Amino acid sequence: MNDVRYIYDLSEGDASMKPLLGGKGAGVAEMNKVGVPVPDAFTVTTKACVETMNNGGTWPETLAEQIAQGLARLEERTGRTLGGTTKPLLVSVRSGAVFSMPGMMDTILNLGISDESVVAVAEESGNERFAWDCYRRFIQMYGEVVEGVPSHVYEDALSALKSSRGVENDTDLTAEDLKELVATFKEISNEQLGGEWTSDPREQLNRAVNAVFKSWQNPRAEVYRRANNISASLGTAVNIMQMVFGNRGDTSATGVCFTRNPSTGEKALYGEFLVNAQGEDVVAGIRTPRPLAEMREVLPEAYDQLIDTMHRMENHYKDMQDMEFTVEDGKLFLLQTRNGKRTAAAALKVASDLVDEGIITKDEALLRIEPGQLDQLLHPAIDPSHGRQPVALGLPASPGAAVGEIVFDADTAAERGGRGEPVILVRFETTPDDIHGVIVAQGILTAHGGMTSHAAVVARGMGKPCVAGAQGIRIDPVAKTLTIGATVFHEGDTMTLDGSVGKVYGEALALIPPQINEDFQRVVQWADEVRRLGVRANADNFEDATKARELGAEGIGLCRTEHMFMAQDRLPAVRKMILADTPEQRAAALAEILPMQQTDFEGIFTAMKGLPVTVRLLDPPLHEFLPNLVEQSLLVQRLELEGGDTAELAQARQTLSQVKKLHELNPMLGTRGCRLAMLYPEIPEMQARAIIRAALAVLDREGETVGVEIMIPLVALTKELETQRAIVVAAVEEEFAAAGRSLDYTVGTMIELPRAALIADKIAEHADFFSFGTNDLTQTTIGISRDDAENGFLTNYVMEHVLERNPFESIDVEGVGQLVTEGVTKGRSTKPKLKTGVCGEHGGDPDSVEFFNSAGLDYVSCSPFRVPIARFAAAKAVL
Ligand code: PEP
Ligand code: MG
C-alpha cells in the first residue's frame, strides 16, 4: 500500500517546502503562515506529478483519494461545497513549478461552477450576469485546456451570438444572453468530445489536475526549461485554491505588483491593476491595466493594506517580490508572491540597496545575482547622437537596444534567428507559444499589453530588448505588415528598438557598447573579495585584451596565435612557409612572419602589462591556411579548360598538390598542435623568439611587461612535451643571450586529450602549468565533433534529455569533469604547486565555473565579455 503523502493543506506548508510544493504552493503557505490574507487552498505535490510522468501518465494509487480528502477538508474549512447548490465552492487549479516558468503551463479558473451551483453564485454575489459570465468562461477554459477542444469553436459561437444580438463587446451581452451561450458551449463541448463531456465538478477537478501535470511536458514549457536550464525531471505541483473574484464589480480588482522597479531596481511603487477583472486579464495583456498608484483613489483601504503587505513580504524574504493580488468586494487577497524576475541592472541595484538598508549581507547579495544574467549589462544601446525621430512609442518593457529585420510570427523568427540572422519579432501580443521565436530574436515589439505582460516578463528574464504596447501600430500577421500612420513596413524591413525607453525606429541605428555602471563596479568588487578562482580572458589582439582588462580580466589565459596567422595580410607569408620545399625556404618565410607576430604580441602585452599572458603556440593543421581542396581542384580544372600552359595554371597545380598532401579526413585528430610542431620545429622556435622579443620590447617601452607563459597545445605523450619544451627553451635562451638580459617565463601545456589527463603526473614533470582545453577534451572524451555535433544529433539529444545540457556549453561534470579532477590531482602529485587553469569555452559558464572551483583549479579563462560573469560565478562558487 502506497502511503506517500501527495497533498498538503495550506496551513501545513511553508517556504522551505518549495521542492515539494512548488514556488507558488510554498509561497502562499508561507504568506498564510505570517498572517498575510490568502485564499484557502491545498497543493498536490511535485512528487505526484513526477510519479505520474514516470508511470506513463497513470496516477499513483492513492492520489485520487487524497485529492478527494484534501477537497473535503477545504470544503469544511470554507463552509462551502464544490458545485453545491448553496454556498458553492469555486476553485482555481494552477501549476506551480519549483522554478518559476511564467505562463508556460496550464491554469483552470472557476472550477466548481455548474448547472447546480451557478444559481447560488448568482444569488450570493447579487449579480446574475457575473455568475453566468463565470460559467461560460469556465466551460471554454476547461474545454480548451483540459479536454483539448479547439478555441475557435467557442470563439465562433460567441461571435455568432454577439452578431445576432447586434453588439460588439462581450460586456454588452446580458445575463440571459450568457445563459444561452452556456447552453451552446455545453452542447458543442459535448459534440466535440463525442458525448463524453462531464459536468461533474469533482471529476472535472481530477481531470484539471491531470491536465496541469501534462502541461509540464508541453512544447513551450520544454523550450522554456531548456532556455533556462531547468531540469525536466522536477515536475510541477498543482495548487487548488478557493476562487476570489476581482470581477465582482467596481469594488473588486486584480493586479500585479513588484516591491521595486524590476527594470531599474529603484525603490519605487511598481505595478498595475484593473478594476472588475480577473487575474488572467492583466497577465495576458488583454486589457491595458492602470498604474498601481491610481488604486489609492479607487480602493483606498485595499491599497494601504497592499502597500503594507508588500513591505512585509520584502522584509520577510529579504528580496524584491513580485506579487499577484485580488480585491474582492474591497477585501485584499494575495494569490502569489515570488522573488521578482529582474534585469541585471535591477539585480545589482536591488542587491546593493538591500545591503545598504541592512536587510542582507554582501555575501547574500552576491548569492542573489544570477551571473549569466549580467550579460544584459553588456548589451548595446543606441548611439545617442543619431538625431532620428521614433516612428512609435511604447512601454520600456525590457532594456537594451536591438536592430533587426522584422518578422511577424515566432516560427519565422525561430528559423531565421536560428540561422544567426538578426530579427525583431513583431506581435500583437506574445503568448507562451511564441517562446521559441522570442529566444532567438534580437528584440520584441508588441502592439498590446503592459509591463507585466507575457512579452515583458519573458524578455526581461532573457535580457532581450522589448518594447510592449506600442501605440498606434497596426499589425497584420497575414499580410505581414506593420502600419504606423501612413507608413507600411513589410517583413524583412529593418527596425531598431530601444527597450530602455520604449522607442521604435523605422531604420537601422548605430549601437554603442554597453555601459557598466556604479552598482556593477561596487557589487563585482564584493565578488572579487570572496572568490578564490582567478579570472582571465581568452584574447588574441590588442582591442580584445584591452576590453578584457576593462572588464576585470587578471591576465590572458589563452592567446590563440593562429588567429594572427589567418589575417589576410599574413596569409601570403604563411603560405610561403607551408609551401616551402626546403628548410632554408621555410626559414626565410618564417623570418618574414616573425616580426608580424612580434608586433601582435607587443600590442597584447601592452594591453596586459603587469599581468600574466599565456601564449599558445600554433594549434590548427596547416591546410587551414591553404585554399579549400574542392575549390582549388575546380580552379585547376577551369584553367585547364581555358587552355594554355600558363604560369597561373602551374601555380594552381602546385598549390593543389600541396593542398592534397596536407589534406586530412579528420583534421581535428590529425597533424595539429604539437604534432605539427614536431614535424616543423622551426615554427615553435620562431614563435618563442617573437614572444620574447615582444616582451622585452614592451618592457623597454612601458617599463613593465607581462608574465610570459608559453603553452604547448594538444599534448598526449610525455615525449612530445619534453621535445617541444626543449625547442622553446633553447630559442628563448638564445634570445636572452642576444639581448644581453632575460625575464621570467614559464612553459606549460594544454591538457585537452584524455591521455594527457590520465598521465598528468608524468606530463607535469615537463610543465610549469596546465591549462585544461575543455573544448577538445569534451570532443575527445565523449567522442563528438565540436564542429558538427551541435548541428546534428547533439541538439536532438538535449531535446530528448539523453543529455541534460550541451556539453560544449556546460561541462559534463560526470565524464569530462572526472578527467579534469584527475588531471589536477595527478599533476599536483608531481608538482604540488603546479598552476592549473581552464581556457575552454566552459570558463565563462557559471555552472562549469562552480565545478572548476571545486576541482581546485587556480583560474578560469573566458571570452572578454564573459569575464564579469565568471567573476560573479567564481564568488558564488565559494559562498
Ligand atoms: C580547447 O580545446 O578547449 C581550447 C581552449 O583550445 P581550442 O578551442 O583553440 O582548440
Ligand atoms: Mg583545443
From TrEMBL:
<dbReference type="Pfam" id="PF00391">
    <property type="entry name" value="PEP-utilizers"/>
</dbReference>
<keyword id="KW-0808">Transferase</keyword>
<keyword id="KW-0067">ATP-binding</keyword>
<dbReference type="InterPro" id="IPR018274">
    <property type="entry name" value="PEP_util_AS"/>
</dbReference>
<feature type="domain" description="PEP-utilising enzyme mobile">
    <location>
        <begin position="421"/>
        <end position="502"/>
    </location>
</feature>
<keyword id="KW-0547">Nucleotide-binding</keyword>
<dbReference type="InterPro" id="IPR023151">
    <property type="entry name" value="PEP_util_CS"/>
</dbReference>
<dbReference type="InterPro" id="IPR010121">
    <property type="entry name" value="Pyruvate_phosphate_dikinase"/>
</dbReference>
<feature type="domain" description="Pyruvate phosphate dikinase AMP/ATP-binding">
    <location>
        <begin position="300"/>
        <end position="352"/>
    </location>
</feature>
<dbReference type="Pfam" id="PF02896">
    <property type="entry name" value="PEP-utilizers_C"/>
</dbReference>
<dbReference type="InterPro" id="IPR008279">
    <property type="entry name" value="PEP-util_enz_mobile_dom"/>
</dbReference>
<dbReference type="InterPro" id="IPR002192">
    <property type="entry name" value="PPDK_AMP/ATP-bd"/>
</dbReference>
<dbReference type="InterPro" id="IPR000121">
    <property type="entry name" value="PEP_util_C"/>
</dbReference>
<feature type="domain" description="Pyruvate phosphate dikinase AMP/ATP-binding">
    <location>
        <begin position="59"/>
        <end position="289"/>
    </location>
</feature>
<dbReference type="Pfam" id="PF01326">
    <property type="entry name" value="PPDK_N"/>
</dbReference>
<dbReference type="GO" id="GO:0050242">
    <property type="term" value="F:pyruvate, phosphate dikinase activity"/>
</dbReference>
<comment type="similarity">
    <text>Belongs to the PEP-utilizing enzyme family.</text>
</comment>
<keyword id="KW-0670">Pyruvate</keyword>
<feature type="domain" description="PEP-utilising enzyme C-terminal">
    <location>
        <begin position="519"/>
        <end position="876"/>
    </location>
</feature>
<protein>
    <recommendedName>
        <fullName>Pyruvate, phosphate dikinase</fullName>
        <ecNumber>2.7.9.1</ecNumber>
    </recommendedName>
</protein>
